[in-house]
Amino acid sequence: MSLHAVTGAFGYSGKYIARRLLDAGQQILTLTNSPQRSDRIRAFPFNFDKPDELTRSLEGVSVLYNTIINAIGPETFTYRGLVEKIGEIIGRRRMIVSVPPGLGYVASRVTK
Ligand SMILES: NC(=O)c1ccc[n+]([C@@H]2O[C@H](COP(=O)([O-])OP(=O)(O)OC[C@H]3O[C@@H](n4cnc5c(N)ncnc54)[C@H](OP(=O)(O)O)[C@@H]3O)[C@@H](O)[C@H]2O)c1
Hints:
Number of helices: 4
Mean pLDDT: 87
CATH architecture: 3-Layer(aba) Sandwich
Distance between the termini: 13 Å
Number of strands: 4
Largest sheet: 4 strands, parallel
Number of domains: 1
Helix content: 25-40%
Strand content: 15-25%
Bound molecules: NADP nicotinamide-adenine-dinucleotide phosphate
CATH class: Alpha Beta
Strand order of the largest sheet: 3-2-1-4
């Protein structure tokens, strides 16, 4: 069993990812604007402006699922840029591989 972090697990896409992980017996936590809204899922604030606290929230996490395609705010990131930035903040750089959607789907079924 691994610990997975799903951003916005109370949102539309995130809730399905969270449900599948929980049904598969995995542990999950979420980053959210509503950390008080917690049931089966441990919830932490995004804390993008407090990297130490963000790092603490994500301690022990094996996989991060980011449900936001483009974050809108003072800075705008591409999806790849956002994933790279989170890796930089938490000090965990990972290889990011772009694949066609169909191949990504098949790969996710095989590695499930
Ligand atoms: N649903 C669709 O049909 C659809 C279609 C095309 C594209 N998209 C895109 O797919 C993404 C997810 O869509 P959705 O329908 O699941 O949206 P959603 O229901 O609005 O959920 C988005 C979630 O993202 C979380 N969030 C807020 N700020 C964030 C940040 N800076 N970084 C990471 N997560 C953040 C929110 O968490 P809290 O609410 O817990 O604070 C929210 O639960 C969006 O970028 C959307 O534009 C969706």
